[in-house]
Amino acid sequence: MTSPKKNSLKKIFTRKNGFVLAFLLPAIILWAIIYAYPLIQIFFTSFSKWNYKNFLNPEFLGWENMFDNYIKLFTVDRNFQVALVNSLKWVVLTMCIQMPFTVIVALVLSKKPRGWKLTRNVFIIPNIISTAAIGLIFLNLYSPSRGIVTEICNMIWPGSDVSVLANPTYAFWGVTFSFILFGGSSCLLLLTQIFSIDPAIYEAARVDGANERQLDLKIRLPLMRPMIGTVSVMAANYGLLLYNEIALISQGGPDNATYSLSYYVYKTGLGSTKLNFARANAAGVIQIILGIVLVGLINKAFRTDEAD
Amino acid sequence: MQKSKSKLGDFLSSAFGKLIMFIVIFISLYPIVWVFLSSFKENPGGLSLPDKWVLDGYITIFTKLNILTYFKNSLVITVCSTVISVLIVSMAAYVSARMEFKFKGLVTLMFSTTLFIPAISISLPIYQLINSLGLKDSHIGVIFIYSGLGIATTYFILRSYFLSIPKEMEEAARIDGCGYVGSFFRIIVPIAKPGISTAAIMAFLNNWNEFYFASILLKSKDKMTLPALLGQFTTAYSKNLNGMFSAIIVTVVPTIVIFCLLSETFVKSLTAGAVKG
Q1: Concatenated DSSP letters for B92-159?
Q2: Distance (Å, rounded) from C-alpha A12 to C-alpha B129?
Q3: pTM here?
Q4: Rounded Cα gap, residues B271 and B154, in angstroms
Q5: Burial level of A17, CB count in 10 A (0-12/13-18/19+)?
Q6: Structural domain spans, chain B
Q7: Which architecture, in CATH terms, is A70-302?
Q8: Within 10 A of B248 (CB to CB), how many other CB atoms are there?
Q9: Taking the CB of the first residue and of the last residue of chain B, which one, N or C, has fewer CB atoms within 10 A?
Q10: For testing the chain B interface, which of A128, A265, A268 should be mutated: the one with the most B CBs within 10 Å?
Q11: What's the start-to-end Cα distance of chain B, in Å?
């Protein structure tokens, strides 16, 4: 009776399966510790009371009040609301400023004018150096005493004495311009896509009398569309997750006007004396959900099927 | 008539192209050039060129600040975490590219979920875990986190590379009496070197520049990485302006130099990293 079962057990513990398991296990363990466990933890503790008072034992809020943390985020937590609005603004701004700019640069460089490779590589530099360094550079550029922004503003409007980081609106734009134009790696990907287009298509279009501008609009842009979708997802995610620039340039200020969701999670969980882990984790859950929704929306917008 | 119009159009479009290229180069370089020039001024900052070139900042950071310690910390942490993650993930990627087993799809699905989980959203449990293991403010804790963070990108780059290697390679090795493990390390790894270096460059770059975990975990000065040190300048050393400007330059110049030397390899790595979408 048991022999078939035994046989199948034997089959499972072959040398090959042992090898498969041994090779998979380290990566799976790493994944479980760094991603799976924290994900499950933030999800469950977002329904609990957990702060400096009960540092070691998160308490479940009970079925009736389980959404308390989320409700508080949206009703009374001013910092979270500012953070949410800012993060969404940064997503929209990357889509409205960074993407069009990068696409135009890619179209220009795709004709391989003199110096196109140099331009492409120089454009990548801000993307590969440390964002902490970039943040610190912009902090100095915006400083009224040693920066250049105030000096330039004074040349245009004498006596204006703009202090970028002291004014909530200016500070928001200050943070924005520390990253929004740096689309070098996206540009690289778009170029790869353009170069993979079959030259015969251009030939055919030229025979039909199309000029370069028409080639850009009618051929390159539509054929770039899947890659534009891919880099849009990356850029939008960057906007949604912005942290380093804020930590170094504005530290969320002035008056908490430049909070982002990531900065909120850090500040609420670790950067204040109240250590409100539960609420920070609830904000983390919201951030993850927003990210997934965003990817879905962008993929839907850029899907290239016949039906659209 | 028609011809002159198109000539004008050509002229305009090439002028437009040149303008765009000029803007791109300008916005990408001016912050770094400004910091570079400022680092030689007696009083850093402002629009003018230095009227007297001084090296005070560089002398300070190499003598008083011991920037080489931070440099070494960054290097140790980055090299260790890159080696660990590429080794571990390449093993998993190889198995999932080559072997038939149950739950194969699940493994890829597991790793791809991490693309949707931002590190900062889940950073509190990671922080508490590292803290309870007593690894806060230690290099091991940071190495451990960095090894795990880039799992998905590394996995997809390597998996697609392993899939492109013809199967006959291992079959020949197996006939010659090579075991599974032996054929992986002796046959596959050498063949897959280009793919592995692509993945390693991406991982190295991300780990070298990582700021968030370094800044929340590494609190003592002799343990900090370069980005964490830069974070300190917003408050602690903000009076030493020459030192701050020089430290920025010392942090970014190695990356830029290596990029200039290996730009084609970098370009390939950054392109392969696009699986993230």
Answers
A1: HHHHHHH---TTHHHHHHHHHHGGGS-TTTTHHHHHHHHHHTT-TTSHHHHHHHHHHHTHHHHHHHHH
A2: 35
A3: 0.89
A4: 13
A5: middle
A6: 2-56, 67-276
A7: Orthogonal Bundle (1.10)
A8: 28
A9: N
A10: A128
A11: 48
3-class DSSP state of A60: strand
ipTM: 0.89
Nearest to B127 by CA among A259, A41, A263, A244: A41
Say whether A59 sits in a helix, a strand or coil. strand
Domain chopping of chain A, boundaries: 3-45, 70-302
Tell me, rounded to whole angstroms, the distance of Cα A133 from its chain centroid.
18
Does A209 touch chain B if contact means CB atoms closer than 8 Å? no
Residue in the block written with tokens 């032996």? B182
Cα separation of A64 and B202, whole Å? Answer: 47
Give the residue from A150, A296, A152 showing the smallest Cα distance to A229: A296
Q: Name the helix (H) or strand (E) containing A154.
A: helix A149-156
Residue with tokens 């000539």: B7
Give the C-alpha separation, A70 to A64, whole Å.
13
Tell me how far apart the alpha carbons of residues A175 and A158 are, in angstroms, rounded to a whole number: 24
In whole angstroms, give the CA distance from residue A119 to residue B28. 9
Question: How far, in Å, CA of A66 to CA of A48, rounded?
Answer: 7
CA distances from A240 to A86, A295, B172, B196 (A): 9, 11, 49, 30
Reported as a single tens digit per residue, the pLDDT across A54-104 is: 777 787 887 888 888 899 899 999 999 999 999 999 999 999 999 999 999
Nearest to B148 among A31, A152, A277 (CB): A31
Assigned token pair, A298: 């962008």
pLDDT tens string A204-259 = 888 888 888 888 888 889 888 888 998 999 999 999 999 999 999 998 878 889 99
Q: Report chain A residues whose CB lies below 8 A from the CB of B211.
A: 130-132, 243-244, 247
Q: Which two tokens stand for residue A246?
A: 């804020």
Q: Which chain A residue is nearest to residue B108, measuring alpha carbons?
A: A28
The gap from C-alpha B183 to its chain's centroid, in whole angstroms, comes to 30
Q: In angstroms, rounded to a whole number, what is the distance separating the alpha carbons of residues B134 and A244?
A: 26
Average pLDDT across each block of 10 residues of chain B; the chain has 277 residues. List them in order: 64 89 95 90 78 82 86 95 95 90 87 88 92 92 93 90 85 81 87 90 92 92 91 73 87 91 85 59
Selected residues 35-94 of chain B with any CB under 8 Å from a CB in chain A: 35, 38, 43-47, 85, 88-89, 91-92, 94
- Phi/psi of residue A87, each to 5°? -60, -40
CATH, domain range B67-276? 1.10.3720.10
